[in-house]
């Protein structure tokens, strides 16, 4: 399966979700490759940190920029799953990856600026679907407040209903320190010690939606 983490706006948590999904997929026994297509190389830095700490399972990571189509098609014959992290902007990497991906995971923070950017992404998805007929685009609200009195996340979720090109992920991820702490360690939240049960439940919910099309 080819999973693309992409967005037209930066700072939405794409890389954090990419590495967490890759670790969970590897822990499930799949041969998974992280493809770092962001010139900032955040995914590669995470992978290098993980390697330096000897964390298992190992997560191979390759860097590739420009038109990704040929590279992705080739790598898909060697790995069961590819997780592609592109930069937070409309780019050649993003547009080309949309043409070969099975699923686009599109994270957005519950801010008006982020939500406005989703309209542009919906247009890109519609364009890509003319050539990539099986592309599934899954928009997920990420980094929502953990304060129950703040309802921005729920309001943003409702906004997604206005964008029929994008499916709404039922899972909403909150702004938890566990995500930031484990990324610094080259790990995923499911590997944290001590663990964060709420963060683990969130990322597992997204994992199930992305790879199995369901919530568990």
Q: Per the principal axes of the C-alpha atoms, what is the gross shape?
A: globular
Rg calc: 16 Å
Give the C-level CATH assignment.
Answer: Alpha Beta
The total of helices stands at: 8
End-to-end separation: 20 Å
Strand order of the largest sheet: 3-2-4-1-5-6-7
Low-confidence stretches: none
CATH architecture: 3-Layer(aba) Sandwich
Q: Please provide the count of β strands.
A: 7
Task: Give a short account of the largest sheet.
Answer: 7 strands, parallel
Relative strand content = 15-25%
Number of domain units: 1
Order of helix and strand elements from N to C terminus: EHEHEHEHEHEHEHH
Mean pLDDT: 94
CATH topology name:
Rossmann fold
Question: In the CATH hierarchy, what is the superfamily?
Answer: P-loop containing nucleotide triphosphate hydrolases
Q: Please state the structural category.
A: alpha/beta
How helical, in percent, are the residues? Answer: 40-55%
Give the helices and strands, then pairings:
Layout: E1 2-7, H1 14-27, E2 32-37, H2 42-52, E3 61-63, H3 69-75, E4 81-88, H4 92-98, E5 103-108, H5 112-129, E6 136-141, H6 152-159, E7 167-168, H7 177-184, H8 197-212
Parallel strand pairs: 1-4, 1-5, 2-3, 2-4, 5-6, 6-7
Task: Explain this structure.
This protein has one domain (2-212): P-loop containing nucleotide triphosphate hydrolases (Rossmann fold). The chain has helices at residues 14-27, 42-52, 69-75, 92-98, 112-129, 152-159, 177-184, 197-212; strands spanning 2-7, 32-37, 61-63, 81-88, 103-108, 136-141, 167-168. It is globular and about 45 Å long. The longest helix is centred in the middle third of the chain and has 18 residues, at 112-129. The protein contains eight helices and seven strands, in the order E-H-E-H-E-H-E-H-E-H-E-H-E-H-H. With 216 residues, it is an alpha/beta fold. Helix 1 (14-27) packs across helix 2 and helix 1 crosses helix 8 (197-212).
